Amino acid sequence: MRFTQPAYPTVYFSTLIWVRCPNCDKAARIETKLGKYIIPEPQQHQSTLTCAHCGLRNKHNENWHGQYRGHLNIACGFCGSPLIHTRKPTKNRVAQIAVRCEVCKKEKEYALHWYKYKQNSAIDPYFGLDLWLRISIKENVLWVYNVEHLKYLRDYVSSSLRDDNSRHKYAMIANLPKWVKSAKNRDLIVKKLGLLEMECKNLNG
Questions:
Q1: What residue ranges do the domains of the chain occupy?
Q2: Is 165 helix (H, G, I), strand (E, B) or coil?
Q3: How does pLDDT run across 144-167, given as a tens digit for each residue?
Q4: What's the whole-model pTM score?
Q5: CA-to-CA distance for 24 and 56, rounded, in angstroms?
Q6: Is omega for the bond preceding 82 within 30 degrees of 0, making it cis?
Q7: Mean pLDDT of the chain
Q8: 190/184 Cα distance (integer angstroms)
Q9: What Å distances lie between residue 9 and 24, 56, 85, 119, CA to CA?
């Protein structure tokens, strides 16, 4: 079987994302109205987080629940040498941090620039919440946003003929990890996706 579907980016499936509610820890939904441009990052989108269990309702940018990463790229306050420093991902942002210059060896406190850290792929891109539809496969985690996302991924994984070379760099399948693309994992991944599909039915039931 050949995979012939369009080269959708992952964000294409993000109009509905099931996540873990930050209030009650149950399944909540993020509904997003995407803007005209969605790659490399969605622009002018409108997202709403709602939980039918506890009544939570948040608009996009009201609260980021994920991690942040701090970065500093300025001249040393003593000798003027380039001073570059990056903090590990954290949820605790501090206004300033002491950084030691490698040239003059003097230490001074500087203000960091903090930005949302989204490289943990098992979180949603709008609020930074843990995805609800996720399942362990060996030492890895397989995740999807919703049932449409799941079916698209399953069609790709179950296909024996794939034309990956013609896909643009933002295509979801072009950025899948090797363990997902590996033929030896095909049957196991399809089985796990079947379990996630049952969970999707429960969410929509």
A1: 10-64+123-204, 67-117
A2: coil
A3: 999 999 999 999 999 887 766 556
A4: 0.87
A5: 9
A6: no
A7: 91
A8: 11
A9: 31, 29, 32, 16
